[in-house]
Design brief:
Length: 253
Amino acid sequence: MKISGNTILITGGTSGIGRALAEALHGKGNTVIVAGRRQALLDEVTARNPGMAGIAVDLSDSAAIATFAESVKAQFPALNVLINNAGIAGLEDYTADTIDLSRAFSTIQTNITGVVQLSAALLPTLRAQPHATLMVTTSGLAFVPYPPGPVYSATKAFMHNWLDALRVQLRNTSVEVLELAPPYVQTELGGPKQASDPRAMPLDQYTAEVVALLERNSFDKGEILVDHVKPLRTAERDGKYQQFLDMFATMHD
C-alpha cells in the first residue's frame, strides 16, 4: 500500500483505532472518507480535519450497506483503499441458565456480514484502480481467543481465515489484501475502562507503529503486526497457546 495519494474509506472512523488511522493517513496526503453510525461524531471528526469527508452508515443493516456502497462509488470513483475497521465487542456467559445471544448476533452481523457485504460491493471499484488495497482490522484474539468474549474472538478468527482465502483469489489483480491485527489497545471498544487500562497499548503508540510499517511496507504475508501482538500470533507455534488462554480467562473484571 502506498502511504500517500490514495482515496481511502475507513469504516468505524469516528473513534479508537479507526479515527486514529484516519487522521494519520489524512495527514499523509490522502483523501480520506470516514464512515460511522453517528452523524454528530462524523461532523466533529471532519471539522477537526479539513478536507476529510464523513458518511453515516449502520453496518448492522444490510440495506443501509447497499445504499452506502452505491453512494461511495458515485462520490468517490477513484476509491482505491477500503479499510474495514468497524466492529463491536461483547461478552457472553454460557454458564448462565438463560443465555442472551442478542449481542452475539449483532457482533456477527457487524464484524462478519457487514464486512463481507461492503467488501463485495466495493471490490469492483478497487479492482478498476491500478493499485488498490483491501484491509480488515482483526485482532490478536483471532489467534488466541478471549474466553469471556467468545463470539467477538471467533469473528476475528473468521476474518483472518477469510482474508487468507481472499488474498489468493485476488493475487492476480491490482488489489492487495491486508490484515491489521491489533493487540489490546487503549480504546473504548471493550468499555470506558479499556481506554486507560495500563495493560493495553497506548493508541498513539499503536498508530505510529502501524503507519511506520505501512511506510516501509514492512510486513509478511499481508499481516500488519506491531511488536505487542506478535506473541499471540505465534503462541500456538511457540507452545504458549494454553498459557495465554488461561491468562485471558482471568482478565475480565
